[in-house]
Amino acid sequence: MVVTAFLVDHGHAKPAYGYRIDHADHAVVLSGDTTYAPNLVAHAKNVDLLIHCLAVASRQLEAAAPDYVNHFYQYLGNPEMVGRILGEVRPREAVFSHISLYSRGQIERSTEDEITARVKMAYDGPFVLGQDLMSFAISAEGVTRIPYDANMRQREPLP
Question: Which of 76, 102, 113, 128 could form a disulfide with 57 if both were Cys (CB 3.0 to 4.6 A apart)?
């Protein structure tokens, strides 16, 4: 197994890293906290699984408070930017983690449907919004999402 750290763009936080894990002709990339970074794209091309952060405000909040929202988008990928990254990388599977949902006052957070639609405007491949304890298996046949049940979070660990 080989683990490679590489620099990404997390705005004011420097240095910031992403990670690529290679094992037995398969690869997984964790973006780390980042917006678009050519170095991320280079290290994640055609990986089996890309795990990427996501920051999102609703369209309503983006229109009402652009300075507030753009502050976050300077160092975390919004749905359109992450869609662009996925389009360039073309992973076999992608999952969003560290999903930062922004709201303000009476303006609510984006829904999962809105997030999914916005990513799909820029990317036509497979992706999923991550959940706690979600898992994946990587084999010669590809990436498989392990069946997930949100109730798993409430169960006691096995001995």
Answer: 102
- pTM, to two decimals: 0.89
What are 4's two structure tokens? 């490679």
Q: Is the dihedral of CA 94, 70, 68, 110 positive or negative?
A: negative
Q: Which residue in the block uniquely carries the two structure tokens 């170095």?
A: 39
Residues 65-98, buried b or exposed e (16+ Cβ, 10 A)? beeebeebbebbbbbebbbbbbeebebbbbbbee
What does DSSP assign to residue 33?
Answer: S
Q: Is the peptide bond before 126 cis (omega within 30 degrees of 0)?
A: no
Residue 123 class from Cβ within 10 Å (0-12 exposed, 13-18 middle, 19+ buried)? buried
Top-confidence residue, 8 or 146: 8
By DSSP bridging, strand 2-7 and strand 17-23 are: antiparallel
**Cα distance from N-terminal residue to C-terminal residue, the chain:** 28
Sole residue written with tokens 């690529």: 20
Q: Are 62 and 69 in contact (CB under 8 A)?
A: yes
Q: 2-128: what fold? A: Metallo-beta-lactamase; Chain A (3.60.15)
Mean pLDDT, rounded, for 102-116: 93
117-118-123 Cα angle (round to 5): 90
